[in-house]
Amino acid sequence: MSEFQERTLNYYRQQQYQSGWFDLLSLMINGMLNNAGEQESHAFLRQMGDSLAGRYPLGAARTVGELEQQINLTLARFNWGFVDVQPHETAMLIHHMALPSAGGQMDDRRWRQALGAVLSGLYARWLAEQGGSPTVSLTCLDTGSTTATFRYQL
User: Fold this and answer.
1) How are beta strands 91-97 and 147-153 bridged, if at all?
2) Model pTM score
3) Contacts (Cβ under 8 Å, ≥6 apart) of 79
4) 94 pairs with which residues across the strands?
5) Buried b (16+ CB within 10 A) or exposed e, 51-83
6) Which of 12, 16, 72, 144 makes the best surface tag, with the fewest CB within 10 Å?
């Protein structure tokens, strides 16, 4: 990673962290994972992402570029990073960059997987509301230290 990219990610991380609220959220998610287990917790978090998408619907997008712009405008409101949307012949990849970090409040891997579940629900609803088919699935392929990749494909 270049020095410029690292500085950009550090800037996003500074914008994302709000003392108190973020600490409470991290404690709640970690407690939920410990008490209910990962599978049940991730299903709940996907539902929360879906509900969040309902509260913050995207404007209509005619192109992939417009879709990316609409998503990024909403993510900017949350200070949750940004996406790069890449269309392919039979799929669409959503690369979410500058993921909020756990801020040392919980295990990074668990945090990224929980956040991936929330984003899966968020993106799935947004894509469905843009005219996507309910038979097309959205899966989280990978969550790295600062990125997550999602595939929208039959």
Assistant:
1) antiparallel
2) 0.86
3) 12, 15, 16, 100
4) 85, 150
5) ebbeeeebeebeeeeebbbbbeebbeeeebbeb
6) 144
> The tokens of 2 are what?
């270049």
Whole-number Å distance between alpha carbons of 31 and 20: 16
The stretches of 107-147 forming alpha helices (DSSP H) are: 108-129
The side-by-side arrangement of strands in the sheet containing 82-87 is 82-87, 91-97, 147-153, 137-143
pLDDT at 150: 97
Q: Please identify which residue in the block is written with the tokens 């410029």.
A: 4
Structure tokens given for 123? 């993106």
pLDDT tens string 89-111: 989 999 999 888 777 778 888 88
What letter represents residue 8's amino acid?
T
